[in-house]
Structures are given as structure tokens and as C-alpha cells.
Amino acid sequence: MSDLFFNHKTIRKYKEQQIDKPILNKILNAGTRASTTGNMQVYSIIVTTDKDIKQSLWECHFKQNMVLQSPVILTFCADFNRFNKWCENRNAEPGYDNFLSFYTASIDALLVAQNVALAAEQEGLGICYLGTTTYNANKIIEILKLPKYVVPVTTLVVGYPDENPELTDRLPLEGVIHYEKYNDYSNNQIDEIYKEKESLSQTKDLIEQNKTENLAQIFTQKRYTKKDNVLFSKSFLKVIAEQGFMKNDL
Questions:
Q1: Cβ atoms < 10 Å from Cβ of 136
Q2: Overall number of domains in the chain
Q3: Is residue 122 part of a domain?
Q4: N or C: which end of the chain has fewer CB within 10 A?
Q5: Other C-beta atoms lying within 10 Å of the C-beta of residue 3
Q6: Measuring CA to CA, how many Å separate 188 from each of 131, 182, 202?
Q7: Does position 199 have pLDDT exceeding 80, yes or no?
Q8: What secondary structure does DSSP assign to 76-145, as a single string?
């Protein structure tokens, strides 16, 4: 398992080879063994292999080709629909039409997704998370026919790798670990934490390609701009409310 953790790679190119059903079921079962709030399992996984549906999802995920290449698309959803119906059928009134419940279900869904990702890699498969899920959640809801109280929160493309990229860099432990309490960073500490990342040849190439002064500006000016963050925040909050959550929230 140690090698599995330390050799994780994001795969964006896939072979045409299909995933056998027993292997797919094995990694999905591994997903269901993830930790879950109160053992409620307030999540669902939509397994997509249909070519036409994948084409529609490809549009939602900014036309990233790996969505079409990979044999399986897994959409992980925060899902209180099933649990609410179970409660109602047992004469128990559910009170899960609020943001906290959505957040709880989202955590459940993300824990399941990571279990699936690790199980897939253990079977020799590659994976890539798609952050675009929340950007176009309203369209994904329509395509996958998600009912009220079900919201897509992340997506995994899964398949046999057709590339072997280098390991992605990570910040040193002192950059992300705090003992006993949060210790805020001095400017010198920030410089030290990001020193290795900023000195990479890939970083220098990115800066040149994007015509920016540094790596931070690539994030703020190119990749995750304030304009886009505000736009997608508003649209996702609207989706959460329309799907039945946040009913009595401020």
C-alpha cells in the first residue's frame, strides 16, 4: 500500500481496453467501505459507459478528451434522496434540507471517491479527478437525471493508462502540517515552503508559456481567476438550493 500512495499519478490518456465487470465491481465495493457519517452512506455513484452519455458529459467537462477515451466515468454525488425516502417510509421525519446535510453528504461522496481511486490504481488502472463537475453541475444533473437532494460533487475517469507521466511535485510536510495548533506563516517560511516548487524546470516552462512573472500569477490570472470563482460559486450555490438543500439556511 505504501508504494500505491507514493506513486500516485494523474492519468489523462487511456487505452481503448475495457474494464472487466468483476474488476469494476471490486473497486466500487472498495468505495463503499469508506468512512461515512453515522453509517448513513449519503452518496451515490453514477457509472457511465454509454458512448452518447459520455459525449454529453465530455461537453460538461470542458471537452477534455480523457472523458471520451476512458472506458468508465464515475460521477460521485451527495445523495440524501435515498435516505430521506427510507426515513419517510419508516414514519421518521427527515430534517436534511439544509447546507450542513449537503456538506455531510459531500464529504461522504469524496471519501468514497478516494477509496475507489486507490482501489483502481491497485488493479493497474489509472484515474483522474475532474474538478469541472461542480462548474457544470446543473447540466450534469440534467444528463444523469439526478432527482432532488442529489448533487454531483466530483468525477473520476477510470481506465488503463496510455501514458506514464512523472510524479507531480508536492509541498514539504512543514508546509501543510501544524502541531497542536495552527501556526501562521511568516514571509520567510512561505518562501521556503514554495522554494522547490518554484525552482522546478516545469515551473519555469509554465511561466514562459503563460507570460507571467511567477507561478502564483498563473493560478490567479490564468487557471483559477476571481471572475471564474465567483461565477461558478454562484451557479453551484444555486444548484444546491434547487436540489432541495439550504431551505431554511440564511
A1: 21
A2: 1
A3: yes
A4: C
A5: 8
A6: 32, 17, 23
A7: yes
A8: EEEE-HHHHHHHHHTT------SHHHHHHHHHHHHHHHHHHHHHHHHTT-EEEEETHHHHTHHHHHHHTT
**Does pLDDT of 2 surpass 80?**
no
- List Cβ neighbours of 240 (8 Å cut-off, separation of 6 or more): 99, 102, 151, 246
* Whether this model's pTM surpasses 0.70: yes
Residue 108 lies in a domain: yes
Domain holding 113: CATH number? 3.40.109.10
Identity of residue 57: L
Candidates 4, 14, 21; CA nearest to 158 is 14
Residues 6+ apart with CB under 8 A from 83: 40, 41, 42, 94, 96
CA distances from residue 147 to 21, 44, 203, 232 in whole angstroms, order as listed: 27, 12, 43, 21
In a domain, 136, yes or no: yes
**Cα–Cα distance measured from residue 189 to residue 192, given in angstroms and rounded to the nearest whole number:** 5
Residues, the chain:
250
The three-state secondary structure class of 232 is helix
C-alpha cell at 69: 477515451
